[in-house]
Give the backbone structure.
Amino acid sequence: MIAGRKNSLKKIVALTAFDYSFSRLIDTTDIDIILVGDSLAMVALGHSTTLPVTIEEMIMHTCAVSRGCQNALLVADMPFMSYQVSNEQAITNAGRFIQEAGAQAVKIEGGISMAKRVQALTKVDIPVMGHIGITPQSINRLGKYQVQGKTFTDARKIKQDALALQDAGVFSIVLEGIYDELAAEITQDLKVPTIGIGAGVKCDGQILVLHDLLGLGMDPSPKFVKKYTNLANETKKAVNNYIQEVRNETFPDAEHSYSLKIKKLMSNTKDA
Ligand code: KIV
């Protein structure tokens, strides 16, 4: 239970996944949460924001991730305009993530303004993860992806958002791109776990976009991204080796070919 991990010595660790292969792979680790984030719009689909990804695309990717996820909690991000219109719309679409795609919870962006949605969803037994601070679906209001809570008023608003989401019934809250001190204070004052991304070490857990961690994300990456490896370089190296070996005919070699070990097969006219 993620909610029970508040103040746990064992921090909550979460990652995104967008397909079956990566889901299956990271689910064999001790990862707690796999999020099918709407960041897939940018990372996997090549859009410049998260706004264009549709509910159908998110459902398709959640189905794929779900097939590979046996152990971690599977959370699906509700895309832009799939929950903002009304409680009814939010319930119908969140229900699809649970019923059709195999998610166990959904994540929605927004604070006080989304408290009613959270109440409506939890009332029909759909667990909700909140998301405040930098909320990428608000890019047209925010102007750019930048750290939030710079002024006292802004910081207080973010804390009020967190408290409102907690009162509405979320089981955890993602804090994205806020000052460490604010995240620490929110974490201390909430009863539900906070999961940080660019919010310092004091949160109850951390989340990263898998492609960023693997060095497959976009450049330049945000300050809070740590590349634990550089698979972009490894991938390019492997592809260049393949190209070279195909062109100089060292691939496929005997080890990677099917051979009947019969010389001059084509000149042999009779069957053995
Ligand atoms: O879409 C996403 O990947 C997210 C996480 C980074 C929190 O919302």
